[in-house]
Amino acid sequence: MGDTQQVDERRVSRLAKQISAFAKAHGGAEAQVAYLGERGARIVLVGEDGGWGDLVAPSYETAEKAVQQSGLTVHEAFDGEFAAKVKTGPYEWKRMAGIQIGG
Asked: CB of 12 within 8 A of CB of 65?
C-alpha cells in the first residue's frame, strides 16, 4: 500500500481535532512526525507547558495533513530545543527505571 494509500480526509480531520484539543489544553504545542513503517506515522506533541503526548496515524501523509490542518509548528527531528521542552514527572522516571532493571 505505502505510497499509493489514499488519505482519508475524515481521519485527517479527527486527528487535527485531537491535536488542536491537546494544544488548547497545554497553552499551545509543537509537533514532530516520525515514520513507523507499515504501521503509519507517529505524531509527537509537546505542549508549551511541557506536557507531551502522541498519536498514531495510518500513514505519514495523513499525519502531515492533520498537523498542518491544526496549524502547529512541525519539527524535522525530536531533538535540541524541541526535546528540551518536555517535562517528565515521577511516573515517567519510574517507568524508565523499571525498564532498565527489567520491570
From this structure: yes
In the beta sheet, which residues pair with residue 75?
32
Question: Looking at residue 2, what DSSP letter applies?
Answer: G
Answer with the residue of higher pLDDT: 46 or 87. 46
pLDDT, tens digit, for every residue of 19-32?
Answer: 999 999 999 999 99
Lowest mean pLDDT among 28-32, 72-76, 86-90: 86-90
CA 73/CA 53 separation, integer angstroms: 15
**Residue 69: burial class (beta carbons within 10 Å; 0-12, 13-18, 19+):** middle
Distance CA 67, CA 45 (A): 10
